[in-house]
């Protein structure tokens, strides 16, 4: 048995209390303010038994250990096949995502990440800067027009959801006319990543998966026929050469990379930008201070990521029998990393309930270790450019009310609406 750390003793199992907290998290009140749920779970221990036999990891240190340690894996095809009831994992949409970077382990994961390198390094982002700035300016022109005509506008639908899909569209060479369709099937496919999706949600995710296959399959076929000076063309050349004797394997990797990198950041980046605008403008003094100190826009983004992470939960499984925070866990045991609970751990971030731009605190919202989010630099870059322009162009922008959420989510946040006014 390998010890992964002893932080605060064994897990506390209080099924009724855990169920009550999870029900609250699914409610409109819990979606709007999840902090009491994070505090409630963390008060039970650093590792808390879930009603279905898995465990919640609530502390910053224990979550970091799971993400960084080789003793923890993502739930890949091999793990799914070992489950007593594999039916949950045989759904079309679930199988599709299990083939992506987020759900494969070494050595396949290592091979693909090395081939990708750092797709959003500093030089790449600087190269994308003019295009991103142009996209932001155009979206804010639309926002300004709606505000002028109607007095208020929906920031999510006008700006936040469109910026990431247009950015990745520019990067991969996906025509603008397809962006709305991509957003639509990405929203529906995300249900497959929930802990306990309903039959209806799985059906929606399954249909979205078929649409994704058709869309990206055709995109890749077109790019093979007419190569361009773009990232997708480069992937095709690389993987065709890597799998010279196995064209089906090459096609599978290219599809999964293109599909996953396109859809993976859409909802999370939209939530980040919406929250950043909300937290920056809900207090006029804070917005005024940021306009006077634009060098702190990066700090605003980091505190936004800490305070309300776009992803609430991520699952890993034990590679071997182990001990986490004093709790013995058998091989294949599932743990759910709670990013929000970790970021509000007062041992890592004192007064975690306070939104403090100058906190200089810590979060693991983009993960850590081998599965660190590939698109994190791009998400930060998009949010930084958008916030800089928003603060300059809309000195009196403010939320017209609280945001609305998709209350069916427990894994990925989705803000469906945030009305703003001036």
Automatic annotation (TrEMBL):
A Pfam family the protein falls into: p450
Key word Iron present: yes
UniProt superkingdom: Bacteria
Gene3D superfamilies: Cytochrome P450
Keyword terms, alphabetized: Heme, Iron, Metal-binding, Monooxygenase, Oxidoreductase
Keyword Heme: yes
Family in the record: Belongs to the cytochrome P450 family.
PANTHER family the UniProt entry points to: BIOTIN BIOSYNTHESIS CYTOCHROME P450, P450, PUTATIVE (EUROFUNG)-RELATED
Official protein name in the record: Cytochrome P450
Taxonomic lineage: Bacteria, Bacillati, Actinomycetota, Actinomycetes, Kitasatosporales
């Amino acid at each position: 048995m390998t010890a992964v750390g002893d932080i605060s003793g064994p897990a506390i199992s209080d099924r009724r209390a855990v169920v009550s907290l999870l029900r609250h998290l699914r409610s409109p009140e819990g979606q709007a303010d999840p902090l009491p749920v994070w505090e409630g779970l963390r008060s039970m221990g650093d590792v808390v038994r879930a009603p279905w036999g898995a465990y919640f990891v609530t502390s910053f240190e224990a979550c970091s250990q799971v993400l960084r340690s080789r003793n923890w894996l993502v739930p890949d095809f091999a793990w799914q096949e070992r489950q007593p009831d594999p039916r949950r994992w045989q759904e079309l949409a679930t199988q599709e995502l299990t083939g992506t970077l987020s759900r494969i382990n070494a050595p396949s994961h290592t091979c693909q990440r090395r081939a990708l390198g750092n797709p959003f390094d500093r030089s790449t982002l600087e190269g994308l800067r003019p295009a991103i700035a142009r996209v932001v300016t155009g979206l804010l022109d639309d926002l300004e027009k709606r505000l002028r005509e109607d007095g208020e506008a929906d920031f999510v639908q006008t700006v936040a959801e469109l910026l990431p899909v247009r950015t990745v569209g520019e990067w991969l060479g996906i025509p603008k006319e397809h962006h709305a369709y991509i957003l639509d099937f990405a929203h529906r496919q995300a249900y497959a990543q929930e802990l306990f999706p309903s039959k209806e949600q799985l059906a929606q995710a399954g249909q979205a998966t078929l649409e994704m296959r058709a869309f990206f399959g055709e995109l890749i076929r077109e790019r093979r026929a007419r190569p361009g000076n773009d990232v997708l063309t480069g992937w095709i050349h690389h993987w065709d050469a890597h799998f010279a004797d196995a064209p089906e394997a090459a096609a599978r990797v290219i599809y999964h990379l293109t599909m996953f990198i396109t859809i993976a950041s859409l909802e999370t980046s939209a939530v980040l930008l919406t929250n950043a605008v909300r937290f920056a403008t809900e207090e006029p003094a804070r917005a005024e201070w940021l306009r006077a100190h634009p060098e702190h826009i990066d700090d605003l983004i980091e505190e936004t990521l800490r305070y309300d992470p776009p992803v609430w939960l991520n699952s890993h499984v034990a590679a071997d029998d182990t001990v986490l925070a004093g709790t013995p866990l058998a091989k294949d045991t599932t743990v759910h990393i709670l990013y929000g609970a970790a970021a509000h751990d007062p041992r890592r971030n004192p007064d975690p309930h306070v939104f403090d731009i100058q906190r200089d605190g810590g979060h693991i919202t983009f993960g850590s270790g081998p599965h660190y989010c590939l698109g994190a630099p791009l998400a930060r870059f998009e949010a930084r450019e958008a916030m800089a322009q928003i603060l300059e162009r809309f000195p009196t922008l403010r939320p017209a009310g609280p945001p609305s959420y998709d209350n069916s989510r427990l894994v990925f946040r989705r803000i469906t609406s945030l009305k703003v006014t001036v």
